[in-house]
Specification:
The chain contains 26 helices and 39 strands. By secondary structure, the protein is α/β, with parallel strands linked by helices. The structure holds pyridoxal-5'-phosphate. Catalyzes the interconversion of L-alanine and D-alanine. May also act on other amino acids.
């Protein structure tokens, strides 16, 4: 048992409501959906702008959780568990973590800065782990919630900590300082990222430095004309690319794919090679070098270890696998904390109840092997994993701890045996340390398609969803429209994520979209906007909920409902208030009432209408007239039929522009995909989709020569042309060719030259240092879908939904 958890919570809780349940605690959780919650979990019920975990306490009690930190005891839960009462559960989590951290006394490196925090943390872990038992933040857990959760994973065997701290507004850093209590401060690059919350760079830097106010030393770069904010009592250990500015002077010489660093430190001089060329990677590597120097490593060890630095992949990717499997690729790390995160993610993304975990040996848990693999086995059991494939010497040794488990000594043995293994209709988590080179396993199991992919950032969807949630009054429900394959972004994966976020409803256009989602396991209610009469039977069979918009549809549905002897089958009544697309018109409401009255086969679950100009403020009178008519007609239906349905009329731009008419639910569409018609709002949303490809070939075209069909482009001078394997058959409009549009290569614009072909397009990359195989961005951050739509005289909806299904979708989480 981890008695430190109990000690720490006792120090901060104001009141303990002891109902005599066991208080032996092993772990802490804030996620009500995690299958890892159990009798030894201390659950903090956090309250967000539109979420409140107190509503899940009852369910958690049913699942065996017995100890909660709450701001009040939820109704019906009295006496069923122990409760620690606090004023604010987030502050309690932070204070608890600070108490917990203070129980340990070993060096802790705190890392902050605008860019590079996670990479520097991962690299330091790599460089220092041969000599220390390192505890570090998992993934990019650096927020007000992520930092406390990271710190709570410290145990007695650790002897060095590396934690990152990220802040978006003023005043957050002091709270993180109290939790991390870093003894060594490391400031990485302070660029312009996340600038919004700060007045200026100076303020941002000051705020960041607060993390280090009690550190014994702060490590950072000094640039020319730099007014550094050093807190006076602190020791600084600085570096610079300029002579005589800092404790360490560094010269860099780029050669081939590498960079040579010449390091001058006091009267010591040595040089080393790092396998990178970009500025950011060089600076991040130097941050690590500084820590090694501070720890008094000798030049030879520094050289040996730093030449092995590698690109860091922190994302959990979801990919389509062979034989209808889906794969969660986390093949770059294998510590205990990140295994827990990956298992929660597996649960949220599983497409099948068959779950396989391919797992390497686990490093740096700080636990003894026996205890570690017992804990891993417990995790595997609580997450209902069907089968475990262990790869590595150590996990093989502890094979008996797992129920359905086969093991291999190394990846090569697994690959040799691959043809004898069966992978079919299952969700596979591939999780291993870098040294096991699980990439090879991923590529065996991955479905093969061409190089063009649409990458979907699931975190961004969650972020955007919360952005709109925050605009809603309490208790207003959310329907998210996932029609047209989630606006082109992917139907199932997004539906699964939304289910995870407990949105109330999904909306699809046609019955078959809904059937597909239901048969893949989506359980939340789904409304079908445009059900054809021929699909009613399937709708009933799959428990979809039809939107009824005409008498023809209504009578057909009622007839079938009577035949099948349905009782109160949920339907949704659409009324036409001015869009003139689908819906009952005002003058037919009486007939509608007569038809529905007394019919118990169906239940009017909701009444809705759709706005035609919610995005256009110049027509706000028209929108208001639609809302007024909706109010009148829906009220009449409600009073005459004596029903209390959910009413809803707002789409995304309606939520932003007509916030007073939220009724009981809103229908959110394009907004969660990161697109707004309002430029100010657009800035606050996160980009969701990035359409990527690669360079197939590069050639030099001489002055006067032409490129492509019809010779539409003539080179004015010798020009470097790259061919990209994406064309109009993938959904890129031909109007985007012939120097109208561009793609981004290495953060630079490359204009599309000549006409776009069916499967390819050509760009001018004369001024870009690029080679065949390099990555190309078709849209994403830049050009944005909004920008493309403006240039092409269309709307972002069309661009997103045009991307062909042959383009593979890859879903990832930061
Ligand atoms: C598509 C759709 C929405 C969502 O619209 P957005 O502008 O994408 O938010 C809402 N309601 C209905 C009826 C729709 O068809």
């Amino acid at each position: 048992m981890n008695s430190k958890i109990l000690n720490s919570i006792q120090k901060i809780a104001t009141t303990f409501v002891d109902n005599q349940f066991d208080t032996s605690l092993e772990t802490v959780s804030i996620d009500s959906r995690s299958l890892q919650n159990g009798s030894q979990t201390l659950f903090f019920a956090l309250v967000g702008s539109h979420t409140n975990a107190h509503v899940y306490v009852n369910d958690l009690i049913k699942n065996g959780v017995r100890n909660f930190v709450v701001n009040h005891i939820p109704e019906g839960c009295e006496k069923k568990a122990n409760f620690y009462l606090v004023a604010d559960t987030l502050i309690a989590l932070q204070e608890f973590a600070a108490q917990y951290r203070a129980l340990f006394d070993f060096p802790i490196i705190g890392v902050t800065g605008s860019n590079g925090k996670t990479i520097v943390k991962e690299w330091l872990n790599f460089l220092l782990s041969p000599d220390y038992n390192v505890i570090r933040s998992p993934k990019s857990y650096n927020s007000q919630v992520g930092v406390p959760l990271s710190v709570i994973a410290i145990n007695e065997q650790h002897n060095l900590g590396i934690f990152e701290a990220g802040i978006s507004t003023n005043s957050e850093m002091s709270r993180l300082e109290k939790i991390i209590q870093p003894t060594i401060g490391l400031l990485t690059n302070v660029g312009s990222a996340h600038d919004e919350g700060f007045l200026n760079l100076e303020e941002k830097r000051k705020e960041k430095m607060l993390l280090f106010k009690n550190s014994e030393v702060v490590i950072y770069q000094i640039k020319q004309n730099d007014v550094s904010v050093i807190l006076s009592k602190q020791n600084a250990f600085t570096w610079s690319f300029e002579k005589n500015q800092a404790s360490v002077f560094i010269e860099k010489i780029k050669s081939n794919d590498k960079t040579e660093l010449k390091v001058y430190y006091g009267n010591v001089y040595f040089d080393l090679l790092i396998p990178f060329q970009e500025e950011a990677s060089i600076e991040n590597a130097i941050s690590c070098l500084m820590v090694l120097l501070y720890f008094k490593y000798d030049p030879i060890t520094i050289q040996n270890r730093m030449q092995l630095l590698y690109p860091v992949e922190m994302r959990l990717k979801v990919k389509n696998g062979i034989n209808n499997c889906n794969i969660i690729d986390d093949s770059y790390s294998s510590d205990f904390q990140s295994l827990k995160i990956a298992l929660d993610f597996l649960e949220s993304q599983k497409q099948s109840d068959n779950k396989t975990v391919i797992l390497s040996d686990i490093f740096q848990s700080g636990l003894y092997k026996e205890e570690l693999y017992s804990k891993v086995a417990d995790l595997i059991v609580s997450n209902n994993i069907t089968r475990v494939i262990g790869i590595g010497e150590t996990i093989s040794e502890f094979k008996d701890k797992f129920a359905n488990c086969i093991t291999y000594k190394n990846s090569a043995d697994f690959i040799a045996d691959y043809d004898n293994l069966d992978f079919n209709n299952e969700t596979i988590l591939i999780k291993g340390a870098r040294s096991f080179e699980f990439e090879a396993i991923v590529s065996l199991l991955e479905e093969k398609t061409h190089e063009t992919v649409l990458e979907i950032n699931l975190n961004a969807i969650s972020y955007n969803l919360n952005f709109f949630k925050a605009k809603l009054q309490p208790n207003v429900k959310i329907m998210v429209m996932v029609k047209a394959f989630g606006y082109g972004n992917g139907g199932f994966e997004i539906a699964k994520l939304l289910e995870h976020h407990k949105v109330d409803y999904l909306g699809v256009a046609f019955a078959d979209e809904g059937i597909a989602l239901k048969s893949m396991g989506i359980q939340m209610p789904i409304m079908v906007l445009n059900p054809e009469n021929t699909s009613f039977s399937a709708i009933i069979q799959h428990q979809l909920e039809p939107e009824i918009y005409s008498f023809k549809g209504l009578r057909a549905f009622l007839k079938m409902a009577a035949q099948k002897e349905l009782k109160e089958f949920p339907i949704h009544i659409k009324i036409d208030t001015g869009m003139h697309r689908l819906g009952f018109e005002a003058n037919t409401i009486d007939e509608l009432i007569t038809t529905l009255k007394g019919n118990a086969t169906v239940k009017v679950k909701s009444i809705l209408s759709h706005l035609a100009t919610s995005d256009d403020f110049s027509q706000k009178d028209f929108t208001q007239s639609q809302i007024d008519l909706f109010e009148k007609l829906s009220s009449k239906l409600m009073s005459e039929l004596k029903i209390k349905p959910i009413r809803h009329i707002l789409n995304t731009s309606g939520i932003s522009n007509f916030s007073n008419s939220q009724y009981d639910m809103v229908r959110l569409g394009i907004g969660i995909y990161g697109v707004s018609n309002d430029p100010e709002e657009q800035k606050k949303l996160e980009n969701v989709g990035t359409l990527k490809s690669i360079i197939s070939q590069i050639r030099i075209v001489s002055e006067g020569e032409s490129v492509g069909y019809g010779r539409k482009y003539r080179a004015q001078k010798s020009t470097k042309i790259a061919t990209i394997p994406i064309g109009y058959a993938d959904g890129i409009s031909r109007a985007w060719g012939n120097e109208v549009g561009f793609v981004t290569i290495k953060n630079k614009k490359a204009t599309i030259v000549g006409s776009i072909c069916m499967d390819m397009l050509m760009v001018d990359c004369t001024d870009i240092d690029c080679k065949e195989g390099d990555s190309v961005i078709i849209f994403g951050q830049n050009p944005s879908v909004n920008f493309m739509a403006q240039q092409l005289n269309t709307i972002p909806y069309e661009i997103l939904t045009s991307i062909s299904q042959r383009v593979k979708r890859i879903f990832y989480r930061e």
